[in-house]
């Protein structure tokens, strides 16, 4: 059993879902966030308020950690300047601090938006080149390249999870392919943690959807075998879907609305509009 | 729900099997064939006798259609001159008429014979180049290239179904890999119709056979997940199979007997002979 | 030395340039065209007026021929119906007649427009899939697939020359990359004829331009080593070039103006407009 | 039903497991080994003591055989000189004798160690180049190339099974990915025998493990669909696993301990040490 | 002729070499650097002192510019914090300012160090994935991904020059392959500027060295045809070369000494040591 | 300058041509062959009679050698048993002895026949898989895999030269593509020796022939740039060439006559017959 796991972004929508499962995989779980602690903690969980872009705040937290599960960051498109600290610099600080602390691995919340400009019908796998759709996606490209650098130069492992649509339920036609259920997210993180050695690798975070548009064949060694399938929601979603428009990149690229949102403007808002059918 | 679907070749073996399922996916189904209407039609189905190689006959039928499911054509090898109208020209007419009518997509009955000269043991996927085995296969290559042209120049979508052995039951050792059950054919056409946007793509029409020799990994976004498996027939078929002969291209290429049939002569007859064990 | 070569389209711009060089490679050159004979013929040249889409007219011409150099066809975009006979059917007739006559090889004037929708900056090679930009390009795709079929089923060899901009001089910025000089055209045809065995293959017809956008590395065995370089015209051409516009596919795809011309309308006229700077 | 199958290495750990299943696939099974016959034979089984590196001993055994299942060989790393006869020369003798006897196919016990230096996280498929990790692996490369030669020059088919960890149960973290259960081994051999035509091909011998690191997608035509999954042992194995060390090639390459064992020294002993946690 | 080119980093070693050639390609050249103007300027050259990481300083400079040649940045490895402004943020500011100013293209001084961890003997081309060898290389990866983002979302073109060893003369065995002469650097920048449309692309900046380890085949459309060849220095360099050591990544990876330099420490110093033979 | 080079097969046709050039690259050249010394030796050359398949004879010769240029072996097809010692075992002995002696690199005379079954018109590069055409070719596959093993496990470098038609002059149509002049052979060996570090790599030994069918693009780092061109012999050779026959694998595969010669029979004799036009 692992001695210590650090989870950053522990108060976020996804981070919250990971606290309990991670707490069962180690002797001590340290949850980190800018926000304060929630009402209930796991028995072996400690909560630390820290800004992950600040080395002095991060360094002590990572001492003796085996693995960092790095989920901090604004989960949406913003002007570059607003993403600089929380998404870009925090990644640098986490990797550098993890190296100094002798951590073994970082499990990173990357995103489909690192490759969001690829055609949905191209069937890319984990070898596809970076094609970010937003500054947000660019921050994920940056962290993935950083991860590869630390692995190749310093032997710090990294599993980059290119998370797709991690919502409670799929809500759009796109999500019939891109949905990542909570259960499968947890399963993916567990495998990213418990696989004995990983080196540097990238894995797509999608559920076992009939319409999942990407392939994890080249990282099968991780043993990520999702169970949920958005198809059970297909009839409802397709019945009330927006008009199909193949000239609209938001419907043709992996990034969905992020592929067309102006740089710096919220893509999540664009997604929300789609859900409402507008 | 779609307003109108047009099904061509509605009286054919495969077209017949698609009428009922398609009628449930739209307000109006228009079935087209050179032959007259069958005894029973679906409640929302209209039957039109028309020659799909004639623009004047096709144009009025496609008015207001959302999607054309194009299954017209002689399903066998013939002299080029005999295939010219029903297989080559009808495809041109359908695409051109669909464009003029503002249709959104054509679902096309392509065939394994567009790539029939590929080695069965090569494990090709949907990116493999055209290697037709017959004039029949050549007509499918022509229509696929036409489909890509209309997509790239005019935005008309196309899903090309490379149908393998769409028989009631598998009957030859080859069919243990290449069988496409009626149920899976219907499922494939449903997905080709209900996927909101597809652009131009190609998908192999094989069931979930243990021995299916090709991969649909690159068009996973379509959500085609076949259910049937020819393996349940394996023991019977292998027990009475012809002598294996790896020097016989009919046993080594995806096209089966079409890979060796002289150009212009019936490949289906060749298949029938195989079934009888001769 | 070859006994007999048949050259179709002998009165065309490119065909005319090939008569003399081909006449030196064989005992008898038979030049074929819909037009009548020019004033002067080579000593061993015969001129035949024939419609290559008519088997009865073609069959006697091909008797005892070793190699057919097939350059017939309208060299521009037209409505499909207008291209059907001269570009599609003539190819079928030539291949079928060549097979019946026991010819060894067809050297075919294919075109960049068979792959004209590929990005110029993608650096494709001869393995790139068909992406026609026009009905004209589609007719080239058809003939290439036909050629492969006759090779694989009947052992008739084919060298498909994907000719780019075969003009006296390069005239547009695009032609700095795509120019094929007369000398290099002749050299390419000579190699396509004198290479002892070729099977089926495709070669790009571009000169040794600094900016040639495609690679013939995979058909190096043909020994096509062009000598001319459009770069000597670069200064003049770039000085008076149209405004660069990377949003204009005519400037970004291999097919140039054919990539944007409406299907059925002349692409050559579009090129001419470009030359005039409009 | 096949007339005669010859199984070499019949007294070995894997050979023993194949006798009964193979006996059900043919009229006569001839089991061959250097060791004498076991107590019980199948009804249609004959046992022959022979040295497979000696043509005079092998030739009579292979008379009239349809298929040879060639499992002879030292299943571990040894000095080259010790492997020369049992692993290298025996393969030559078997192939040559099979050719002379007119056999149709050889099913060969190749090994992961033919590609053991590939990174586990690279997700290779059956097209990956040879990267042997030991002399043992080199003997498998030799036999695979020999197999391809006999197929291409003499039409003798071969199915090369790259067997991974064929133990009763998985015992190491590596085996969570590489385990091949007895049941799946038998199933794989059955398919390698009953597939009517195979030409030359290579298939990975791994069970349906969640963490199986390689892909058989390109030989799907064989119909090898393993059933067992090492994941049921994961909790136990991971609980007592050795310390992960990504700088240790034994944990990062497909060959496992063979990737680091000195050439000529037992890799199985290295594996055993791992199991004990040392 | 171009109206206005902006050259950043104009006082640097490479920037200085580009001022005169660029001044001949446009009506106005604006040279930018943190340092003050040199003694002599070209007739149509203006010098601006500005910090490229500051939008307010950059924005006015880029007004009405057609093309920005962006060579600003520390040309060596440094701690991440020291590279953040000059190498990372300046790139963001330049791209954003160029977009706001309506510039057409950015020609960017990227570096081999974006892919410096690739094996020298792997023969990679311009499609190889990012494998940075340093924070310096990471800053180039960042800018390349940024460039692709601005191209795909905003239509701003970019030519990323992966410059290798741009010294007066090659000085190490590695440089026999990686040398980029001043003349070829200028030629490469000229082509990156004068090519009418480029979209987003990457080109390797190496001379026509016999031993150039990478391929520009996929960006041949740019017409970059280097003339100089480090081989004329080979005899001298090899005579006094350090001891070959294939276990030393500095001798086996494209990045040379950067592949082994500790992150944050000067790689140029490492190169200098090599030159001295230590 | 290198201290000591050992050249095996020094009395052979190719070995003889290498003695003088190699003697200039080192302080001591030791030439080894089963045959006795020629009349004249280079000033720094020693001649040793030894059987390279015997460790006791080889070991003392390799002491203190930096590089072994291994050209021993029967240069033709023979029964496997006849090739076993001179071609297979000698390679093992040389690699093992070189390892024990601490040599840095082996330059090996591999052959096109390791990949001789590939189609000539496929344009393969150095990544193509092994497809031997003879036992002779199989011995080259064996040594290449052995070379890779010693590199990956023991750090012994290897440059495998896949020599094509190394004759004084090209004599057949095939040789117009496959000729390797003496001058280019020497140049290739010089580069294989003087390149500071090589790891394991493969390079095709063909001259700068117009019709050279394979690509060395992926090993450009070696700096092998051949000068001679068989095309100067083309007119003569083609004038008296045998009848082209694309159904004859000897004319369609890289291995030429070796592709059709029965296993174990001389392919050189087959080539000689071709030269005589029979």
TrEMBL record, chains A, B, C, D, E, F:
Superkingdom per UniProt: Bacteria
Keywords from the named record: NAD, Oxidoreductase
Keyword NAD annotated: yes
InterPro entries, per database record: Epimerase_deHydtase, NAD(P)-bd_dom_sf
GO MF terms, alphabetically ordered: oxidoreductase activity
Domain NAD-dependent epimerase/dehydratase: residue ranges: 5-165
Keyword Plastid (UniProt): no
Transmembrane segments: none
Listed PANTHER family: 4-EPIMERASE, PUTATIVE (AFU_ORTHOLOGUE AFUA_7G00360)-RELATED (PTHR43103:SF5), NUCLEOSIDE-DIPHOSPHATE-SUGAR EPIMERASE (PTHR43103)
Protein family per UniProt: Belongs to the NAD(P)-dependent epimerase/dehydratase family.
Protein name: NAD(P)-dependent oxidoreductase
